[in-house]
Structure formats: C-alpha cells, structure tokens
Amino acid sequence: MPHFQATKDQIDRLNFQTHQPLLITDADEVLLHFVAGLEQFLHTKGLWLDLTSYHLAGNIKKRGNNEVFPHAEVGDLVADFFDQGINDLQPVIGAADSLRHLSSHLQIVILTNLPTEHQMSRQRQLTRHGMPYPVIVNAGEKGRAVKYLADKVKAPTFFLDDAPQHLVSAKELLSDCVCIHFAADERLAQFTDVPEIIDHKARSWPDIIQMITDHLDNKAS
C-alpha cells in the first residue's frame, strides 16, 4: 500500500545500532495527553466527550442536549483538531524522564498514526517536551511498521501503544517483540480489553521501565 511505502521510506532514513535493543513507542496517550487535548478542543465547539468506549464516533455529544455528533462528520472534526489543537497537547508525567533513562540502554523511535503534514510539528512538539527522538508517521495498523523497524536490529524489540489492535498486529507478525499496553488516560485504561497475546499491561511509566529492565536482565542472565 502507498501509505506503508511512505512509512518505510521514513524508517530507511534512520540510522540504527544493530546490536542495541529497540523501543518503539506510540505518542498519543503514551507520551502526550491526546484525550485531554481533544476535550479542550471539543469544548470550543460546543461539544463534549462521553468516553464510554475506545471509539470517538458515538461518544462525541453536543453540550446541552447530549445529542450524538453525526458519525459522518467525526473525521472532519478530528482533522480540524489536528490543524488547530494538536500542538497544544501536554506531556504525560514521567514520560520524558523515563525515556531519558531508557535511552542509555535502548535506541528509541516514536511511531505515531498522524497525517504526514504534521510530522515535523509533532517532532518539534515532542522535542520541546524533552523527547527528541525520531518520529515516524504511519497510517492504519502498525504491525508491519514495527516489524520493519525490528528487522533493522539484532536485539530485543519493545513496542508500546495504547491501542490493543496495534499491539496485536505487531505480535502476530513478530512473536518475540515484547508488546506493552499503556494508556495514560485512566478512563481509557479501565475499559480497554487487552488480549492475552499482549505481554504486559502497564499502569505507569515506572511500570514500563520495570518491565523492560526485567526483560533485558533475563536476557542477559
């Protein structure tokens, strides 16, 4: 597919240390508070987010009468958010310090589903928040991108995301990739079912550090 070729082209421009472990991490709800930022944006539009499932369609409602925002218009609304509010997202507490700590042992790549035109602004945004790691933008399930990244190294690979479908798609293509689910927004974390195929479900960045450290220690022993 053309969009995956664009992802591969971005990855091919990176330099990797062949024998150093690799951490691939999502951005939204892992490094940045996407939901909180979206809620602030919706407020300016007379809308609110009734977060009862993982999907936006059906959960965005009009303030006052709670009428569901038309499903067909959600895509345009999210596109407006990318244009107007995406750069205002706040960092997840502990993310920058944790990545800084992990970067002494692992190489780090940020893999985020985002329109290509926002790649550089996302890179600048994360750098501003103390996370100056390469950003790869993707579309659709992330499994193939994770495998393509993992094939660049001959060392353990870790993949961190808030969306179970991305973790599953990676695990199905790369069984030895250590897949960790983490959603910074507690509402998302509570109602997200994580399939058994996923290796870990983390509650915080200290959890993530411990899981990665334990795995690397076990590999070394």
Can you tell me about this structure?
By secondary structure, the chain is an alpha/beta fold. The protein has two domains: 2-33 and 91-220, 3-Layer(aba) Sandwich (Rossmann fold), CATH 3.40.50.1000; 35-88, no CATH class. It is built from nine helices and eight strands. The strands form two sheets. Strands 5-4-1-6-7-8 form a six-stranded parallel β-sheet, sandwiched between helices. Strands 2-3 form a two-stranded antiparallel sheet. α8 links the parallel β7 and β8 (200-201). α1 (2-12) packs parallel to α6 and α6 packs across α7 (164-173). The mean pLDDT is 94.
Short synopsis of the structure:
The chain is an alpha/beta fold. Helices cover 41% and strands 14% of the residues. It has 2 domains: 2-33 and 91-220, Rossmann fold (3-Layer(aba) Sandwich), CATH 3.40.50.1000; 35-88, no CATH class.
Describe the largest sheet: 6 strands, parallel
Overall shape: globular
Helix content estimate: 40-55%
CATH class of the largest domain: Alpha Beta
Radius of gyration computed on alpha carbons: 17 Å
Task: Enumerate the spans where pLDDT stays under 50 for 5 or more consecutive residues.
Answer: none
Order of helices and strands: HEHEEHHEHEHEHEHEH
